[in-house]
Amino acid sequence: MTQHQRLLIIDFGSQVTQLIARRLRELNVYCEIHPYQNVTDAFLKDFNPQAIIFSGGPDSVTRPGSPRPPALAFDMGVPILGICYGQQVMMQELGGLVESGHGTAEFGRAFVTPSDAQLSLLDGWFAEGREQVWMSHGDHVSKIAPGFHVYGTSPGAPFAITADPARRFYAVQFHPEVHHTPRGAKLYENFVREAGFTGDWTMASYREEAIRKIREQVGDKKVICGLSGGVDSSVAAVLIHEAIGDNLTCVFVDHGLLRLNEAEEVVTMFRDNYNIPLIHADESDLFIGALEGVSDPEVKRKTIGKLFIDVFQKYANQIEGAEFLAQGTLYPDVIESVSFSGGPSVTIKSHHNVGGLPEKMGLKLVEPLRELFKDEVRALGRELGLPAKFIGRHPFPGPGLAIRCPGEITREKLEILRRADAVFIDQIRKHGLYDEIWQAFVAILPVRTVGVMGDGRTYDFACALRAVTSVDGMTADYYPFTHEFLGETATRIINEVKGINRCTYDITSKPPGTIEWE
Ligand code: XMP
After folding, report:
1. What is the position in ligand 1's atom list of the atom closest to the CA of 516?
2. Neighbours of 336 (CB within 10 A)
3. Which of 304, 393, 516, 518 to mutate to test the pocket of ligand 1 (most atoms within 8 A of CB)?
4. Does the Cβ of 109 fall within 6 Å of ligand 1?
5. CA–CA separation, 144 vs 242, rounded Å?
6. What is the pLDDT of residue 103?
7. How far is the CA of 508 from the centre of ligand 1 (A)?
8. Residue in 4, 137, 175, 241 annotated catalytic
9. For residue 421, which of 261, 283, 295, 268 has the smallest C-alpha distance?
């Protein structure tokens, strides 16, 4: 168990609960999100939080059977912050009243003005007499609980900010964690200061603690780590190597669908620079062979995913005595969020992952990044001395270039795609845009078009450039390159890459498009 001061977020199912955790981690405060169903009295005692936050949620506290926090939460003597549904549930439980609708629903931007600014939670807030906040509520508090006072109001929420300072219970109707409450982070800062957090969650301390935990878990046993060349598995590998040295062996499956020089870069970095035992499984012939004649995106994905597991298993079996499998699982993958719909969601794409591997191979899991968000993994990577250029790399999908080559895959197309992609990325780096973009790549299109170069006719492939901004890959917008940049890039690709004579720019957002073409 972690040694840090701990804050508990009780999740009532808001879409933005993860953002609360983000804001707190930015303040170097360690927190965990747990669905309200799991937060029993026993859990609370064991977790021993120094403060608690109640998240928002889609239900109505006026509905019988709607979610509630355990009563013990109010008796632990620790500060509590209730947000939106969290505010309402706090009022209801402590003797106030919540009502539905009646014209006081508020969705979107609103302004809160102070009623009484003498509250530690509001230190440095209301700098300009009012603050913009993001509201999203149908119900509203119509009577506050005994002991509470009002500290801020908005047109639709007369009790926008309430508190019982003696018990250090705070309740806000709006969402301070979202971008549209521009100074919301300040409220979290004040809240954790009030709760006595010292900001002891740093990457240097995390690194030490993670190394200690890996040693404890693994002892002198052997660990296998599947390396994809991406940031997560690389950081996990370097961290584990620091903990257990050469008892770690990495397996890098080269499926022949990587970018220009990517395999060499990964091998050089791990084997030569870090001296980490590495098996470079060059299985490109196997994968490309299996993909011959396949043009359906789902068949491609499933073929690659299945082969990957077979190949990984084959190489892993060569490592004698291995008992553990390391994975770069991140915190967003493990948060058990509250699902009210309960129904399975539609599969848009079969993601390539190695989920079933550990059971199949009888291995135990080592997941040293389970508590981290993506940007924290990057910070840990920097702490471990991984090159900045490597850490800042755009995400790359498991099925690789296969899903950037709509239609049938051939070696010729892959080679053309690699070279075009390298020119595009080179352009982006030269113009200093790489870090502003979530992902950028080229897709080679399954059409040939007619062109004229010099005095001759060409009949070559068309390609599409794709570059998007995004926070988490769930939604995305196309990057607004200048016309000059796009023109220069198209000219370079067509001049430098034999086999392409036409270049388009994909300006589809997600939704309705997806980031990758397949
Ligand atoms: P889409 O295309 O669904 O992609 O908008 C969202 C993000 O996920 C990446 N992606 C994958 N990553 N295995 C992965 O590890 C996959 O099968 C896969 N498919 C898409 C994609 O590059 C983007 O960052």
Report:
1. 2
2. 11
3. 516
4. no
5. 54
6. 63
7. 16
8. 175
9. 261
User: Ligand 1 within 6 A of 351 CB?
Assistant: yes
Q: Report pLDDT for 1.
A: 46
Amino acid 131: pLDDT: 94
How far is Cα 110 from Cα 115, in angstroms, rounded to an integer? 16
Q: What is the mean pLDDT of residues 266-280?
A: 93
Residue 254: phi and psi, rounded to 5, are: -95, 105
- Is ligand 1 within 6 A of the CB of residue 328? no
Q: What is the pLDDT of residues 429-450, one digit of tens each?
A: 999 999 999 999 999 999 999 9
Catalytic: 175?
A: yes
Residue 2 confidence (pLDDT) above 70: no
Residue 353 pLDDT level (bands cut at 50, 70, 90): low
Does the beta carbon of 300 sit less than 6 angstroms from any atom of ligand 1?
no
4 tagged catalytic: no
Mutate to test the pocket of ligand 1, among 231, 234, 469, 515 (most ligand atoms within 8 A of CB): 515
pLDDT in tens, 194-206: 999 999 999 998 8
How far is 496 from 500, CA to CA, in rounded Å? 9
Question: Which one is predicted more confidently, 513 or 3?
Answer: 513
252/237 Cα distance (integer angstroms):
11
- Contact indicator for 460, 451 with CB cutoff of 8 Å: yes
Residue 368 exposure: Cα atoms within 13 Å on the Cβ side: 35
